[in-house]
Amino acid sequence: MPGGDLDRSYQELRGRLEEKGIDVDGVEAKLRAQRVETPSWAYGNSGTRFKVFPQPGVPRNPFEKFEDAAQVHRHTGICPSVAVHIPWDKVDDYGELASFAGSLGMRIGAINPNLFQDEDYKLGSVTHPDPRVRRKATDHLLECIEIGRQVGSDIQSLWFADGTNYAGQDSFVERRHRMLECLREAYAAMPEGMRMLLEYKFYEPAFYHTDLADWGQSLLMCQKLGDRAQVLVDLGHHALGTNVEQIVATLLDEDRLGGFHFNARRYGDDDLIVGSTNPFELFLIYVELVDAERRGARVDRVAYMIDQSHNIEPKIEGMIISVMQLQESYARALVVDWRELEDARRSGDVLRAYRVLQDAYQTDVRPLCAVVRQQLGASADPVGAFRASGYMEKIASERQGGVQMSWT
Amino acid sequence: MPGGDLDRSYQELRGRLEEKGIDVDGVEAKLRAQRVETPSWAYGNSGTRFKVFPQPGVPRNPFEKFEDAAQVHRHTGICPSVAVHIPWDKVDDYGELASFAGSLGMRIGAINPNLFQDEDYKLGSVTHPDPRVRRKATDHLLECIEIGRQVGSDIQSLWFADGTNYAGQDSFVERRHRMLECLREAYAAMPEGMRMLLEYKFYEPAFYHTDLADWGQSLLMCQKLGDRAQVLVDLGHHALGTNVEQIVATLLDEDRLGGFHFNARRYGDDDLIVGSTNPFELFLIYVELVDAERRGARVDRVAYMIDQSHNIEPKIEGMIISVMQLQESYARALVVDWRELEDARRSGDVLRAYRVLQDAYQTDVRPLCAVVRQQLGASADPVGAFRASGYMEKIASERQGGVQMSWT
Amino acid sequence: MPGGDLDRSYQELRGRLEEKGIDVDGVEAKLRAQRVETPSWAYGNSGTRFKVFPQPGVPRNPFEKFEDAAQVHRHTGICPSVAVHIPWDKVDDYGELASFAGSLGMRIGAINPNLFQDEDYKLGSVTHPDPRVRRKATDHLLECIEIGRQVGSDIQSLWFADGTNYAGQDSFVERRHRMLECLREAYAAMPEGMRMLLEYKFYEPAFYHTDLADWGQSLLMCQKLGDRAQVLVDLGHHALGTNVEQIVATLLDEDRLGGFHFNARRYGDDDLIVGSTNPFELFLIYVELVDAERRGARVDRVAYMIDQSHNIEPKIEGMIISVMQLQESYARALVVDWRELEDARRSGDVLRAYRVLQDAYQTDVRPLCAVVRQQLGASADPVGAFRASGYMEKIASERQGGVQMSWT
Amino acid sequence: MPGGDLDRSYQELRGRLEEKGIDVDGVEAKLRAQRVETPSWAYGNSGTRFKVFPQPGVPRNPFEKFEDAAQVHRHTGICPSVAVHIPWDKVDDYGELASFAGSLGMRIGAINPNLFQDEDYKLGSVTHPDPRVRRKATDHLLECIEIGRQVGSDIQSLWFADGTNYAGQDSFVERRHRMLECLREAYAAMPEGMRMLLEYKFYEPAFYHTDLADWGQSLLMCQKLGDRAQVLVDLGHHALGTNVEQIVATLLDEDRLGGFHFNARRYGDDDLIVGSTNPFELFLIYVELVDAERRGARVDRVAYMIDQSHNIEPKIEGMIISVMQLQESYARALVVDWRELEDARRSGDVLRAYRVLQDAYQTDVRPLCAVVRQQLGASADPVGAFRASGYMEKIASERQGGVQMSWT
């Protein structure tokens, strides 16, 4: 969509970056190595509490979700894995699902247990006052670890909707202790090399308190569990005004950043297309990731996952745009002039330091990203290519009968 | 639940209030005249976007909803009317529904059109770019006006979920003009004596912008429509930190306060039990209402309606508690010492003025409210009496078969 | 700072825009006609309630403030006017100040009365319970109108710190009436051609309620005063999560947008450099302004003013950066492909519409802005040129003795 | 101010509580043992960034501040200690200040270093890029520890204004490391029995990021320092919507709650009279404290301190009201029916559990608190007694000449 002649724009940009001393080949290598995992549930119908708008061609089973995810990978070149959700993606034979994924050039990524859609979980899952419910919840965690072992997934990605709606409803402290006990059992069951990511969320669906409401609550749990327990940062799960990039930097500094759920929000947990509300914030998060790598932090342990919930926009195209915005944000962070930045910081030159970041942010990196995608055998113009491919029309006509999958 | 001997507590309170010069008989008369409307949809199942937890005994049709609402009225004495939602409460014969309500000592209150649960409304209803969809939406408004005329309801209570999710998606200005055109047609169709209330909402289910996002947007529409168009204030529909009582006072001063949707929230539009998160705010809203009546504002045109969405708590009991908290807040506002307050304000005595309100707020008015309920033939202890009545057990066993009603 | 060869980058950009059908000459003409007013108080010392950090070379009188402002104009080419604050900029002979400004190629812009720094205003100015204080406040408004008449300024820019800190402290309604009475007297005193802008602010320095807390409160006042009363939008004066561009569009649609106070914020009214926290929001505001001009709205009546309060950054350079970010945001809004956008909206193509804006936003317009500044006889690289000019060193050494000006 | 006959109201309340099984003598004993520390700086002038309104009779030195604080203790009976701020309360001879305090029945409480009002700290204190500034900051910490040792204070209460205003200005991670290094040196210098409290703050005076922005950031520092480093919770230092009582409960559970700075806020860090915006929240915090004591948590290590900044209200009276509201909140928390609450929680009876808290909250405990104050030899009606005492008139006439103390 930047239009014009790609090669001319690319050469102009490359020349400009090289004059500033940026190693453009190195930047491109980093961009080729970038990976983003998309979530199976984003390909099914989803919506708000008021209405789920069904869309034509939506998958009717986990296999069709992988087909759709493969389209995102085909056009972007950096999305070969798919996070699955149990029981939404429950199948009789996970080996069959993994093989099918492999046949598409894809693989199964993080395993996401579901502990919020059973009648039993009305007052909590691993925090529930009733030991029977906690047993059931823990068993589900164990089941998901077993699935992960079977399909070769090394990440258990846990989000707990647990919380209360009214003051007094339950004891904050006892709920912490109950959760810890359940998680310890699950942690102990994980094979070596598997990690447990603990997501936090400021509010919703619990309205008075959420047991893991912020990164501090998740981090405390992780500290008690062990070093393969890490915090998962979902961009939409913070109080308004929170500096998310600072949290990212802190967790990286503590070696406790397990991964991201990328999406965008204006007010609540809106689960919009990544970067669509404040793209500058997304850039600043990537600046921290690039900086951490420079410092030698273990960024290889960070899982980059998208978690968005399309309400009105076409699902596959919405996902492609999110991936592109992650790619462009990373590219901008990669062209930051660190020498200049560090010099400005050292000399207390506030405005020069700020302008170093602004300079990188304002750089139109789209030609660079397009060329990188071509290098990967994907599309210079992913949205245009996807629209032209006829895939949407094909699935809309072929996926007749059956029940569309939904995230609820 | 205050416990102890009601009569002794009541006499102690009455004596204390009279010593301060409060006309306790007058206060009781006001409390007996208080009316609160409950919403039919609160008796059906509801929930969050993640899960709706069904409950035993939930109504399977509008008639059963009225039966449940009659329980709330039976125990509180001040809730004889029920707001209905079309099409959730659609029946073949509204006369039959009205008669049935009458047989229970109840009546139909405000009519609430639904313009957010049809596939056509994915991008808006009265604001939709496509004139066909706007026609459909307007026809539904006209239908609801006709139903209102049939059942003798004088309030059309309109909430528009209309908005956009992404910057650029549609034109703010054109959407305003489209909405105004549709509302003008509906307004013109209202019989004399019928009012149109325009609710606003800060966010959700639209995430980038909501067409009627705040009281200013609603008020501008009302000004263009006529003096029977008024603003509806839902307590959960404001930005964090908003001074809601100031909005209430301003709208009363402009004769544009049409009514309330009472509920409580901590962060989003949580639709919790009224007064459960910040009871002091609820008290301050009632202080403005009492003050407005003192000034001669038309408080008779204010509709007091509850709009809550029970997620985990029993529906009828939750509603009873909300009604009691409205009653207690009103009672506290009625025992404000206005002479002292005005004197403190005039002399710029900030702390004395504040403490006059604190004094009223801290007063334990529960004995007074219990006595008033007895005077009305309702229950001194509504929750206890309802629990003891066996109604819950009765409907849980009788309402077998059929499909429970839900708000979606 | 984009680096590289300006002409090459400019030609590449120009070519790309023209291929998309953008009239680049027209865009440049608009950019040359852009005007931004800087505030005299931003050149003096300012800070937070905790500390004001004084800076070397800060002006000691209004004349030196104009000298500094002239530097901003010299390097940006679009800032010939300066908003003044009474009494901070009080001088014996306003004619002399105006002449001095003229000698620098500058002029006096909006007049800002001060109604918050006198002991008398502790409980309010035009809303104060005591008529003597209201008289004093109104007299100050009249004095400022007279100053405006003398110096040929056509804008009275009013911000009221009025509000209360505690529930009960004063009556919302009586305060509204008192304010209206005072403003009516001031409005009547304005010569034809003079406008009164009413700023609103969500909170601070009043903490329980602010009399003009949102655009709705200001608009109601303006409606009662007359069509030369308009609302002023300060970007930092909204609740978190507010869609400011929607407010801008609505006020333009009602012909009630009087002007802006540009700055940036993350949480409170941080008064940071424009565009430094969410540059995408700034772009979207300019999109509405460009769209309004396309529709024929009276954008000529919109005053574009900066109101920032430098805490730690050098004042003149901070101001230059703010002006550049306003220029770049406007430039991006001017390269929106409206035909494509309207087509996407009409066909309900949500993602295409969003991407049209993204395409304009991601365009690196810096070469275009640099060329425009050259056309205006200003600096291609304003920050670099200002730093190289030696002005900072000059004033730091020359402005010895006397008392630095401060905004308090 | 509840009015009426105190003894009659007290007997009625006592009877009602005893019928519910509350040990009223035990409650009174707890209330007599309650302690609240007031801050020396609240007796001096303070204000917003826009204006500090001076008040008659304000202290001109630390000794006069202790005189004023002694008035608060005289009328409430529970405020014998005063937090001091260095250098605001710097004196040549701390022994003399301590003796003077003793002669008033008072003592010196927590020591508060000031690391935000020196020119050197513009870009940070213990986080500053320049080692010279960090040395200076650390030396001040050491100085304050020495003062604490001299006056027998066992608490160092640290608040860091450190942060940045612009993205890129400095490195989050390097600042963490610099802070930790400085704090380690200070921690090591503390005598046994002295504790270091680390306050966090969501925003202000830094606007882009604050180094200790939330409880998680403070807790991580404390964990690295040792078990005499604990977190200090200031009620005004959280993002909107934060559940503060949950944080309190969590820190108590981790034995890391060092103390409170009590105040109230609606939006920012408004530093209003305690309990004046959401008294229900204050009650819920005390419920957690009472619950923690029941569980055997070390609540004896919690320092209860007020930190408010009076803008428009008289200082001593404002402080008295804050202390009363803390007393009343504690009293309400002490009459919670824990047996009933635990039973309701165990049986998943959400509404019963909520109503147990509501029952305690709605109880008008003022007669009980008045009697407790009488038992302590203080005033049944502290505000009335203070107003009648003539103290305000006395200091207004006596404290002529000299410079009023201010917090800046």
Number of helices of chain A: 15
Report the largest inter-chain contact. Answer: A-D, 57 and 57 residues
User: In which order are the strands of the major sheet of chain A placed?
Assistant: 4-6-8-9-10
Question: What number of domains of chain A?
Answer: 1
Q: Total strand count of chain A, please?
A: 10
CATH 4th-level superfamily of chain A:
Divalent-metal-dependent TIM barrel enzymes
Content-based structural category of chain A: alpha/beta
Oligomer state equals: homotetramer
* End-to-end C-alpha gap of chain A: 35 Å
Helix and strand pattern of chain A: HHEHEHEHEEHEEHEHEHEHHHHHH
Low-confidence stretches of chain A: none
InterPro entries (chains A, B, C, D): L-rhamnose_isomerase, Rhamnose_iso-rel, Xyl_isomerase-like_sf, Xyl_isomerase-like_TIM-brl
Protein name (chains A, B, C, D): L-rhamnose isomerase
Pfam family, one (chains A, B, C, D): AP_endonuc_2
GO molecular function, one term (chains A, B, C, D): metal ion binding
Protein model, in words:
The structure is a homotetramer of 408-residue chains. A five-stranded parallel beta sheet of chain A has the order 4-6-8-9-10. Helices cover 48% and strands 11% of the residues of chain A. By secondary structure, chain A is of the alpha/beta class. The mean pLDDT of chain A is 96. The first copy, chain A, has a single domain (34-330), classed as Divalent-metal-dependent TIM barrel enzymes (TIM Barrel, Alpha-Beta Barrel), CATH 3.20.20. In chain A, helix 3 links the parallel strand 1 (38-39) and strand 2. Chains in contact: A-B, A-C, A-D, B-C, B-D, C-D. The B-D interface holds B 1-4, 8-9, 12, 15-16, 19-20, 240-241, 243, 266-267, 273, 276-281, 312-314, 317-318, 321, 328, 350-351, 354-355, 358-359, 361-364, 366, 383 and D 1-4, 8-9, 12, 15-16, 19-20, 240-241, 243, 266-267, 273, 276-281, 312-314, 317-318, 321, 328, 350-351, 354-355, 358-359, 361-364, 366, 383.
